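User: I'm putting together notes for a lab meeting next week and I want to include a structural view of one of the chains we've been expressing. I don't have a solved structure, so I'd like a prediction I can at least talk through. The sequence is below, exactly as it appears in our construct file.
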Amino acid sequence: MHESCELTIDIVIVNWNSDTFLRACIAALIEVESVGDVEYRIVVVDNASLDGSADELPRTAPALGLRRNRSNVGFGRACNQGAALGSAPVILFLNPDTQVEPDSLGIALRALLARPETGIVGAQLRDETGTVHRSCARRPTAFSLIGQDLQLHRLLPRIVPSHFLWDWDHAESRPVDQVMGAFLMIRRPLFEALGGFDERFFVYYDDVDLCARARDAGYEVRHVAEAKVWHRGQGTTERAKAHRLFYILRSRVLYAIKHHGYGTGLALLCTAFAAQFPIRLAVALSHRSIQEAGAILHAAGLLARAVPGLVARQRALPDTIKASCTAR
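Assistant: Thanks for the context. Below is the predicted structure for the 328-residue chain, given as C-alpha cells.
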C-alpha cells in the first residue's frame, strides 16, 4: 500500500435496498486493495434498508465502517454522515450499483491531485455491454430547465440543449460542468468549505448543485475517461418509479429556486403539471402501459401534496450558498 497521506481516500457508499449490488461493489474495491495503489477506508451508510443488503458485509474490506439510519434520510444527508466519519484528504462518493476497475481509483486520484485547481473528478461509467453512459451534464440555466420540461430540447436541440451531454462520447478526459454522483471524488477541504451536500435535495440534483457550487468557488470539475467504472444505473430506485419521478421533479424545483430564483421554481411547478405529467401520461397510455400511467399519476399526486411545504420551506431558507473557500 502507498504510504503517502495524499494517496488515501474515504469511500462513502449510501445504501438503500441495493440487493446484491452492495456486496459486489465492495468486492470490486477489495481487488483495488490487492493492487496496492491507494489506501482507503470504506464507510457504508444504510438508509433503513429492508432487504438485508447491508447485513453480513465482507469482513476483508479495508477498515469497513457501517452506519445504520433508522429511516431513509436521503442521499445527500447520508453522504454527509459518511464523510463526517472519515478524515482522509479525499472523499469518493460511490453508488452501490457500481464496480470499479482495479486501477480506477488510482487514476482518478492522480487526476484530482495533478492540478490544485481541480476540485472534483468523475469516472467513465459503463454498463455490462461496455456501452459508455453519457453521465456528464451541463449546468442548468433557468431557460434550459423550463425548456427541457416543455420537451423543447427534443424539438429544438440547438436552442434548448439537453441536460446530459448526449452529443459527446465521453472518450477523453476534459473539464465539464457536472459529473454524476455515482462516482464523485472531491477534495475534503473543498467539500467541507462548501458545507457538503445540500440536504434539502433528498435525492437527485444534489450532485448538480455540489458541482455548481464548486465551480462558483473557482474549482474545476473534470471527467476522467481513463478511470473506468461499471454502473448499472437506477439500481436502487428502479422499483420505485413513482417516487423516483416525484423526487426528480421536486429536486429540479429546489435547484431552480436556489440558483435561479423563486419565479423560476414556480415556473417549473407549472410546467410539471401542464407539460411533464400530461406528456408522460400520453406516452404511457399510447403504449398501453397501465402500470406506468399509474406511477405517473401517483408521482403527480405526491408533487401536488408537496407544493405547500416546498414553497414555504424555500421562502424561509437563504439563497444559493456561495463558497468563499481557499482550500487549495
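A couple of points you could mention at the meeting. Confidence is low (pLDDT under 50) at residues 1-5, 319-327. The first strand starts at residue 8 and ends at 15.

User: Perfect, that's what I needed.
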